[in-house]
Specification:
Radius of gyration: 22 Å
Number of strands: 18
Largest sheet: 7 strands, mixed
Number of helices: 7
Order of helices and strands: EHEHEEEEEEHHEEEEEEEHEEEHH
Distance between the termini: 25 Å
Structural class: alpha+beta
Length: 319
Amino acid sequence: MSRSAFTPSAADSAAGAEVRIDRSAAERDDRDLLPRLLHDPRTRVLAVRRDAAPLVGGRLALVEHGRLRGAATGTAEITVPGVREWAFLGRDGDGGAIVLAVLAEDAPDDLVANASWAPLRAAGGDLPAGEAELLTTAVALAGWLRDAPFCPACGTLTEVRHAGWSRHCPACGREHFPRTDPAVIVLLTSAGSDDRILLGANAAWGGRRYSCFAGFAEAGESLEDAVAREVEEEAGVRLRDIAYRYSQAWPYPRSLMLGFRARVVDDADARPDGEEIVEVRWFTRDEIGAALSDESDVTLPGAASIARRLIDDWYRGIA
């Protein structure tokens, strides 16, 4: 996300205002950036607890640092009970900074007043596109800051640098950065018809939700090879006409999902692996339409996911 639209506060949301967010990555080299920004009244804070953020009126609640419950204002050291780390996310179109507050798991809901909390999986599909991207970035960065405090090379506790975007090991001198793992996801159409798609039911979902086939790319493997391998492993079919569509950052735990569409060579080969995928099923366009309209017992991926977008685009005839 180099620049994205999002709404900076509940008041602005009510007025329908929309601004742009710029990561402004060059500023991260300033070691005094975060303390200075947290004393700037224009700065807004996005709090993240695990993968959830506060919402007001269905929009992200971005608040002044001093309005977080328990904030110590007017001091040189920035302290808020429940905040484990701070990080710089970027600037809005008026030059105001957006700062991430990484919360402890037991941080109270009322840390942000009058807000309800929702995870990215639930809220992402209903947020404006820019806000969804901002929340995705915040959840991904928060997860790394929270879960990777030690140097993987020597085990020493690292120091956060670059306004939350790197960690330095004081023992061995290594620099560490947020990790992103490439994963592929693919929508499969029938060998003989563009009006049928193959979806699978994952064992982790109890066999109740049907989605596209996905998996992580292995070391030394091209994305196209990863698509073909994962699908043959999970659904037993060989593919042709593998074509890239678009990507989506997905911080569960730290993935970049690369979306594809492909055609099956022989529909009759389709079968579940019986372990990860418990059922595969061919769906017609009418059946998918009924599922999208909640007029069937078939459950599809959530609106925030790239899987849902791949299915939606196919259903609407977007090539």
